[in-house]
Amino acid sequence: xxxNTDNNRQSHKVAIFDVDGTxxxxxxxAELLDELIKGGFLEKNIVKEYNKExxxxxxxxxxxxxxxxxxxxxxxxxxxxxxYGDFADVAESxxxxxxxxxxxxxxxxxxxxxxxxxxxxAISQSPKTILEGFCKxxxxxxxxxxxxxxxxEDRFTGEIIDLHLIVNKANIVHRAVExxxxxxxxxxxxxxxxxxxxxxxxxxxxxxxxxxxxLYKHAKRMGWKVVVERKDVIxxxx
Length: 238
Description:
The chain is of the alpha/beta class. The chain is built from 11 helices and 8 strands.
């Protein structure tokens, strides 16, 4: 039986953010892979395995999503055998170098919501090892990201723990609401691609920030707020 203290605990309003492309102006996993290669922990020639998609994106003949998907596949194929200590050290160096390379709109929104007592929740497909430090420095209260399985001698096996949970961001939100005593009343969500739709549908105020085409079309159908930051200009699209 729950005591009165448990029953009377006030629920906190929550603000939910995607990270890559929404707060961070690049991709944490892309920066992490690049530094693992530079540090000699991964072979240099693996770049060739996603270079085609990268160049197609640069030339605007392919999508950014296709490039990131190819990069993630290469990352997972080559992660096996890497020592966690080396991985964590590289993650820390990426955070130190990239911490301030964020969008002004979401940076300022995070600060504003934090000052108003919101519980800040980040949900990302990037590795939790790098997300923890990156998001903690921004004031986040809880971070959900991919957790990679460790085998003997603290070396990665190449598998992801509980992948079925992290791929569905709506499930993560429900889990966090229950565990952290949160309320979706007055909630805010910020995402940039269609994979963020499941959690954006749960919040009272969904914000589509620099959305890709798929999310933009969905946002227009739903009447959601669309915000774009370009150079030093931030504007809403009606």
